[in-house]
Amino acid sequence: MSRISATLLVSGIIVFGVIVAYELTLMPRTADPLNHAPLTLRDTGAVNAVSAILFDYRALDTLGEATVILMTATVVAFLTPRAKASMLAVRLSSIVLYGVVILLPFITILGIAVMAHGHISPGGGFTGGVIVATSTVFYAVVYSVGGQQSYVIAPAANKLIENTAMTAFIGVGLLGLGLAGSFLANAQTGIPLGTPGELLSAGTIPVLNLISGVKVGVGLGIIVMSLFLE
Amino acid sequence: MIVLTIGITCIALTGIGIYGLLRRTHMIRMVLCFNILEAAALLGLVLIAYSPDARSPILRAATDAHVLPLPHALALTAIVIGASLTALMLTLIVRVHRSHGTVLVDKLKDWRG
Amino acid sequence: MNGLFTELPVLLIVIPLAGVPVLYFTARRGLGTALPALAVILFVVILLSSGARDAMHTPVVTAAGGWQPDLGIGLQFDLLAVAAMLVTSLIVAQAILSHDETSGAQHFRTLLMLLYAGSNGLMLTQDLFNAYVFIEITSIASYALVAGKQDRGGFESAFKYVVMGSFAGLLVLWGIAGLYLTTGTLDIQSLASRFEAAPGAVASLSAAAVIAGLLIKLGQVPFHAWKADSLSGASYTVSALLSGVTTTAFFVLLLRVLSALPSLTVSLAPILTTIAGLSIITGHLMALRQPRYSRLLAYSSVAHVGYGLLAVSSGAVTAIAAGLFHILVHAIMKSGLFFLGRSFLHTGNRSDRLEAIVFPEQHRTLHVTLYVLLAMSMIGIPPVLGFTSKWYAVLETARAGYDTGAALIALGGAVALVYYLRVGLQLVHRGLPELSSPGPASKRLPVPIAGTALILLLAAFSDRLLGFCVLAVVQLMETV
Questions:
Q1: Within a domain: residue C85?
Q2: What tens digit of pLDDT does each residue of A167-223 get?
Q3: Judging by beta carbons within 10 Å of its beta carbon (0-12, 13-18, 19+), is residue A16 exposed, middle or buried?
Q4: Which of A215, C3, C102, C390 has its CA 20 to 30 A from that of A101?
Q5: How many structural domains is chain C composed of?
Q6: Which helix (H) or strand (E) covers residue C64, if one does?
Q7: C166 to B34: CB separation less than 8 angstroms, yes or no
Q8: Domain housing A149
Q9: How far is the alpha carbon of C205 from chain A, nearest alpha carbon, in Å?
Q10: Enclosing domain of residue C458
């Protein structure tokens, strides 16, 4: 496409955008009219309404999302045959080497904590999973000096974990189907929702949080390591 | 005012992203443009939920006003999907670079469309 | 478990998804992946046919997780889904059988399961955002399948495909955000009532963005070039899947969106028919000029989807049904032609240039017969199913008042006759070329036998099949 038509298209979009923006700014901006937060607390026992939506009301979306991560990790690992990374030849100073060792447990624990508290505070499986992935990537980057690759988890084990987590997610869903007659059902299965705001509350939401956290952590680890080793 | 600012940012990002995609010079640049476009969409989603006098939808007191939680949940899902797409694009660029020796779109043989 | 049956729509998505770890674990134990994958499809088809009778009376509507739409996700299992999913299941099963290389078979079949799950989700979902998630699952699986050929062209065309597809995906996301902003709902059914009440340009623009995104995914005219690029870069099996499964799934979703927005469809009709008409013209004329087998078939797909779109945008119930019928028939016959392309490889010839392709010696007569039948169906020569579906499309489009469109569809067949005849004459008349290294001889029968037999046999029942499509469309219009 020529530059002229590109400019035309972009200016067309901007004109449309201005209309949209105009209507957006004119719209009355009210807070959530239905006030979902107490509603979701009653239904799911989760204080965090976003988590409740992600892992209970729209858990099917989240299953799809976790599938996307699994698929991308598989594809990226398949398309990038193992090779030595050129930047691995850099020799890192001992401050970095030891610093990472000291930091690593804290990062991992932070990640797991964010996953586990997904239903009562901001965060959740996806955020926690990304944090955990950072720690594995950190380790692999820093300790893969001189062309030798080091992993926290071997690539083959990564795949096993991913598929096990997928099975677990579907298993939780089927449990809901068996007990309450609908896939990924939570409160209807009779699982105690617990006291709102406590770590062990909200039924299956923390379980799904942990599972998707593991999936994201491992999946992102695979993706980053595959691209890094190229 | 803040709504207007975010709205304008959103439109500007969309314009930049689409222009960059259409210019089609450098593959990495196209991935960046895709990411810019996605950021604009996410910003739009968050803007839908925004209300000046409401808190984030994490319940502390039932009388609080909260913003709409649904768009936030949608944005989270969209972020993950966008990240996956970016990873896939980067992988393909690596492979194209390996086989063609270039990531410049013009130098690729029969690029159409 | 009385809940099992009403949960049918969710199961139809989850079973192929569960197929992914199943394939992984069976492959680890050395059990192979072909049988588990086929078992998954068989299971889905059994569920489909057992639910079909119920769907005949009223569509099975499910709220995933027991939550009603808006916060929850609604899924609808109706005749439209039954018809489309039976067709895609057939094509996926053929694809599983056709992959006979051992390397990468597990990867291929895993992606196939994901594509299957994604396309099933696309055809069942009633929730716009859920549809976006399934669009991306289906698309990422297709990008990966195109790249899976692992050669120069494969990566390049996969990258083009990803850029085009992600742009379309973002358009859909934008549209969904805008529709949610103006109507406050993501559910297609409540959208239908609230869209009419929602004022302003934003709602219409957003709906148009969703439709435009889907049209790009279908490869309609201003954005048709990627289709030929990606299909020619992919292997024959993958091309068959892309032109059969994904196209059908996106078309069904487009049908659902359009039927939910009747007033917008009426005002968009001139644009949609123009796009469809241009796609028919461009598709056929470009196909005429293509020097390569897959590119030729890809451009012909552009034209055939154009037939469907033309019939759908005319708005009459029978015309929509005829369009749907033609798209389903097209999925079977086009994927059959692509599967047939696999046998070219058995002559040791890697190129798909028209002057180089030739059928192998084994089962040569069978191959030629299959090609003739499939091409007859594509062109629209009686007595095959392709003729009747096209006949209905022409008839109903003309009856809906689109005479020019109907003429275009009819003329398209004449052009198609020229290029399929050209390929066919080459395939039949040329002797085997002197090959330095004859390829691996395959004792296996060509894959598309099942689909072709179906096309031939079902031609006698085309009245009833069209009647089924009409029922499906009526049901779709009523439930919205």
A1: no
A2: 999 998 888 888 877 788 777 777 777 777 777 777 788 888 899 999 988 888 888
A3: middle
A4: A215
A5: 1
A6: strand C60-64
A7: yes
A8: 31-228
A9: 8
A10: 267-480
